[in-house]
């Protein structure tokens, strides 16, 4: 009964989305206020109906309603409650429902916070957002209905893939989808502005918070996914350049480019058509991600069970939105002439360089991801493109980006002298070069990756600090400057925090890849051995019964210089219902290193296979991601970008120049 | 989210990547074997190197790599041997040459293209004459003000 209610709500939501697409568009074209205003209740109703559908599916999972096909294939009565709930989106159908839930949430949010938008623009934005909703509701209803019933309900379910039975599933997909789908707002703004025929500084200011929010969520989602892979997969890999990972990384890179180019639109009224194009492409990559994950056209470790019918449908959605968007862009791009004039050396130029590097880097990832397909189709060459290619072809762009970032972020707008900015940055430069020399000397003879990574990290972090300090001005005593620092706009802090986060992540990635230590061996109980400076002892191995699995758990002591640091409990689990094993690595997290222990199989001659890794700076990778997201959050909380600020604090905002 | 299903079909007892009994006694040779393994794809897996993979086939390939290294092949010769046996598909890093120049040239080529495009744009901006370049036009300033005050 409740499942049917959910199904019915979903159909109603589809109808509402269709109406929301058509009515406000006509209204905005004819200037009929009533028709335009229709978008607002429609967005709310659509969101509400989708919440009902999602709640109905969640209810079915929590109560283990095995008359639903989806619950049978992805749940089990013994499964802990957390995984019954997260199991809702641990499969294709449910995750699509989560996706549209977020589409409608963003639509509703545009309505809640969009009070200061001109009515025609708002109506058009909501109409475009409605059309995205309609497309995905149709996709769910016609190809991936989560509410299908079984003819005969079985006694119990087939359980969720054990690798997904992890708290990571609770957070990774929702954040990722908030990011993917958040980019649909930038898309809607771009399309609405193209229909409107007007892109100006105000538009730049309106679209920025949405892009910022989407980018922030995408950063958190990707970071969480990488961290999940790190501790779950059993050898501590954190990024595999897998097609599906690339599918999330490409929108992220484009979103970074979009964030930076929309600053130029807002402050300088240039790069307008380019920014609109980026907004279309960013959402295009989100759709490409959905297509890659769910069509099975490119084999990937993350792919959901795939189905050609779904692939075709998604390709159609992608074709309509990206193709339609680009056509509209081609027809209308000429109306957006640039206004700002600036010298060759200026903040504007630095941001153009940023965009060039990011877009080219995205293109490299894109072509590497689809090359196996193209090569096989056009050249009859069946080949693979994997990690070694991406490491070699992608990294140089990030290195160049890191090198120019601190300089570019401090260059003044319009006209600048590079010598002055570099002089301001000399402490960062000196420190970075000192770190380079020092690390080079210490590690003698190994790859350049470590020293270069450390240098870039220092350069970016110290550069960001100098940038903030320079904002406080030269004059006055210490206290004056401190007061000025405290009064800096939040977006200035956000910029510095996000940029230093990038530096921390770069240093972490380089450190981990360059200096990781690994030890694989057969160990008897109570045997000790050294890995680096640590002494590892296998104390004991025992069988433990979990709620829906059986575990082989080892007790491993880690000591340094005779002092016990910690006792780790790596596990190997077997989930009998799903018939799958998982490794649960035990990790001692540290600021400078992780100790990562995995227990393997028992050996015929006695003893256990064991792997121990020392992973230097591992946590810096995610620490940097957190800093980047925090920087996004700080900028988002800046008064000037608060979407509804105009309506509420009009008197205070009067003093803000329109820049 | 490695897809272990496929592997389960092939295996009764799962093994995890490089096992102690596979490893060579000479650490230098073993290090070379690891390096070569990272560039080779496990054929039945999804985008995993044989060094990371749990599949039985990956284990066979790892043993094969070590066999060739012990017999004195260079790293390149080992890869060559595996390509002759399994095809180009086995290489995770595509070779230069043939149609692959598109793949390898994509980054530098696009950088050149986009760099020139960017430079042209910057030059046009630095030479353009815009009235009231420092601010919005009166019209727009008024509009923005109006919107912010609403």
Automatic annotation (TrEMBL), chain A:
InterPro entries documented for this protein: CcmF_C (IPR032523), Cyt_c_assembly (IPR002541), Cyt_c_biogenesis (IPR003567), Cyt_c_biogenesis_CcmF (IPR003568)
Bilayer topology annotation: Multi-pass membrane protein
Gene Ontology CC terms: plasma membrane
Main localization (coarse): membrane
Q: Name one GO molecular function term.
A: lyase activity
The Cytochrome c assembly protein domain covers which part of the protein? 89-295
Q: Name one GO biological process term.
A: cytochrome complex assembly
Q: Which residues form the Cytochrome c-type biogenesis protein CcmF C-terminal domain?
A: 315-639
Keyword Cell membrane part of the UniProt annotation: yes
**Which Pfam families did the record assign?**
CcmF_C (PF16327), Cytochrom_C_asm (PF01578)
Q: Where in the cell is it found?
A: Cell inner membrane
Query: What sections of the protein cross the membrane?
Result: 6-26, 47-72, 96-113, 125-142, 175-195, 207-229, 249-265, 274-292, 312-331, 352-374, 394-413, 425-442, 448-472, 493-515, 617-636
Q: Family, per the entry?
A: Belongs to the CcmF/CycK/Ccl1/NrfE/CcsA family.
The free-text function statement in the UniProt record for this protein reads: Required for the biogenesis of c-type cytochromes. Possible subunit of a heme lyase.
Name of this chain's protein:
Heme lyase CcmF/NrfE family subunit
Organism expressing this protein natively: Aquicoccus porphyridii
UniProtKB/TrEMBL annotation, chain B:
Q: Looking at the record's lineage, which domain of life comes first?
A: Bacteria
Q: Which GO terms describe its molecular function?
A: metal ion binding
One GO term of the cellular component aspect?
A: plasma membrane
Quick one: signal sequence residues?
1-17
Among InterPro entries, the record links this protein to:
C-type_cytochrome_biogenesis, CcmH/CycL/Ccl2/NrfF_N, CcmH/CycL/NrfF/Ccl2_sf
Q: Report any one BP term from Gene Ontology.
A: cytochrome complex assembly
Q: Locate the CcmH/CycL/Ccl2/NrfF N-terminal domain: which residues?
A: 6-148
Q: Where are the transmembrane segments?
A: 101-122
Q: List the Pfam families.
A: CcmH
Keywords from the UniProt entry: Cytochrome c-type biogenesis, Heme, Iron, Membrane, Metal-binding, Signal, Transmembrane, Transmembrane helix
Q: Which PANTHER family match?
A: CYTOCHROME C-TYPE BIOGENESIS PROTEIN CCMH
What is its biological role?
A: Possible subunit of a heme lyase.
Write out the similarity annotation: Belongs to the CcmH/CycL/Ccl2/NrfF family.
The name under which this protein is listed is: Cytochrome c-type biogenesis protein
Q: Which organism is it from?
A: Aquicoccus porphyridii
Q: What is the lineage of its organism?
A: Bacteria, Pseudomonadati, Pseudomonadota, Alphaproteobacteria, Rhodobacterales
């Amino acid at each position: 009964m409740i499942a049917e209610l959910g199904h019915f709500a979903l159909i109603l939501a589809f109808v509402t989305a269709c109406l929301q697409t058509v009515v406000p568009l006509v209204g905005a074209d004819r200037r009929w206020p009533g028709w335009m205003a229709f978008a607002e209740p429609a967005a709310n109703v659509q969101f509400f109906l989708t919440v009902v559908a999602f709640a109905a599916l969640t209810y079915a999972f929590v109560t283990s309603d095995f008359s639903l096909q989806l619950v049978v294939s992805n749940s089990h009565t013994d499964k802990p409650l957390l995984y019954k709930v997260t199991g809702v989106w641990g499969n294709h159908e449910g995750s699509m429902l989560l996706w549209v839930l977020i589409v409608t949430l963003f639509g509703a949010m545009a309505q809640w916070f969009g009070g200061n938008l001109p009515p025609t623009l708002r109506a058009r934005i909501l109409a475009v957002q409605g059309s995205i909703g309609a497309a995905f509701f149709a996709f769910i209803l016609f190809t991936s209905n989560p509410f299908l019933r079984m003819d005969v309900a079985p006694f119990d379910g087939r359980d969720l893939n054990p690798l997904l039975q992890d708290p990571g599933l609770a957070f990774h997909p929702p954040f990722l989808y908030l990011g993917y789908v958040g980019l649909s707002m930038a898309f809607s703004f771009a399309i609405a502005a193209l229909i409107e025929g007007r892109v100006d500084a105000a538009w730049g200011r309106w679209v920025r918070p949405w892009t910022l929010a989407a980018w922030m969520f995408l950063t958190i989602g990707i970071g969480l996914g990488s961290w999940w892979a790190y501790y779950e997969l059993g050898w501590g890999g954190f990024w595999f350049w897998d097609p599906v990972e690339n599918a999330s990384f490409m929108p992220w890179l484009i979103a970074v480019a979009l964030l930076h180019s929309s600053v130029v639109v807002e402050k300088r009224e240039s790069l307008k058509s380019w920014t609109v194009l980026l907004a279309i492409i960013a959402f295009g990559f989100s759709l490409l991600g959905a297509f890659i994950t769910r069509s099975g056209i490119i084999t990937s470790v993350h792919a959901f069970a795939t189905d050609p019918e779904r692939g075709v449908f998604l390709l159609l959605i992608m074709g309509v939105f990206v193709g339609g968007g680009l056509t509209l862009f081609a027809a209308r791009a000429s109306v957006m002439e640039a206004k700002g004039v600036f010298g060759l050396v200026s903040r504007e130029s630095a941001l153009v360089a940023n965009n060039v590097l990011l877009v080219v880097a995205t293109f490299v990832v894109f072509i590497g991801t689809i090359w196996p397909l193209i090569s096989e189709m056009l050249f009859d060459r069946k080949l693979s493109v994997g990690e070694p290619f991406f490491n070699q072809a992608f990294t140089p762009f990030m290195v160049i980006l890191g090198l120019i970032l601190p300089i570019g972020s401090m260059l003044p707008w319009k006209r600048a002298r590079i010598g002055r900015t570099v002089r301001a940055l000399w402490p960062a430069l000196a420190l970075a070069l000192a770190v380079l020399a020092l690390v080079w000397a210490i590690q003698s003879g190994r790859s350049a990756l470590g020293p270069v990574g450390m240098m870039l990290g220092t350069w970016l972090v110290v550069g960001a600090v100098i940038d903030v300090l320079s904002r406080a001005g030269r004059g006055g005593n210490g206290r004056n400057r401190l007061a000025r620092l405290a009064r800096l706009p939040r977006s200035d802090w956000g910029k510095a925090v996000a940029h230093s986060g990038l530096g921390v992540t770069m240093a972490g990635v380089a450190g981990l890849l360059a200096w990781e230590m690994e030890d694989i061996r057969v160990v008897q109980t109570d045997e000790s051995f050294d890995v680096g400076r640590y002494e590892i002892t296998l104390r004991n191995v025992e069988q433990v019964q979990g709620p829906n699995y059986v575990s082989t758990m080892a007790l491993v002591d880690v000591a340094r210089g005779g002092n016990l640091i910690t006792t780790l409990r790596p596990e190997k689990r077997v989930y009998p219902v799903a018939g799958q094993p998982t490794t649960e690595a035990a990790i001692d997290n540290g600021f400078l290193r992780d100790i990562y222990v995995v227990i393997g199989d028992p050996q015929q001659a006695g003893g256990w296979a064991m792997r121990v890794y020392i992973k230097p700076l591992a946590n810096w990778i995610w620490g940097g991601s957190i800093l980047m997201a925090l920087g996004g959050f700080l900028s988002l909380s800046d008064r000037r970008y608060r979407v509804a600020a105009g309506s509420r604090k009009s008197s205070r905002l009067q003093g803000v120049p329109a820049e | 989210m490695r897809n272990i299903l496929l592997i389960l079909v092939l295996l009764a007892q799962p093994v995890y990547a490089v096992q102690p009994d596979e490893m060579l006694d000479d650490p230098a040779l073993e290090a070379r074997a690891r390096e070569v393994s990272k560039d080779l794809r496990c054929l039945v897996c999804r985008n995993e190197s044989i060094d990371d993979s749990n599949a039985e086939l990956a284990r066979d390939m790892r043993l094969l790599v070590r066999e060739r290294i012990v017999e004195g092949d260079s790293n390149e010769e080992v890869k060559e041997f595996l390509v002759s046996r399994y095809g180009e598909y086995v290489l995770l890093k595509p070779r230069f040459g043939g149609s692959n120049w598109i793949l390898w040239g994509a980054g530098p080529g696009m950088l050149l293209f986009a760099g020139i495009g960017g430079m042209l744009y910057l030059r046009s901006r630095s030479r353009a004459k815009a009235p009231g370049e420092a601010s919005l036009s009166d019209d727009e300033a008024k509009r923005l003000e109006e919107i912010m005050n609403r």
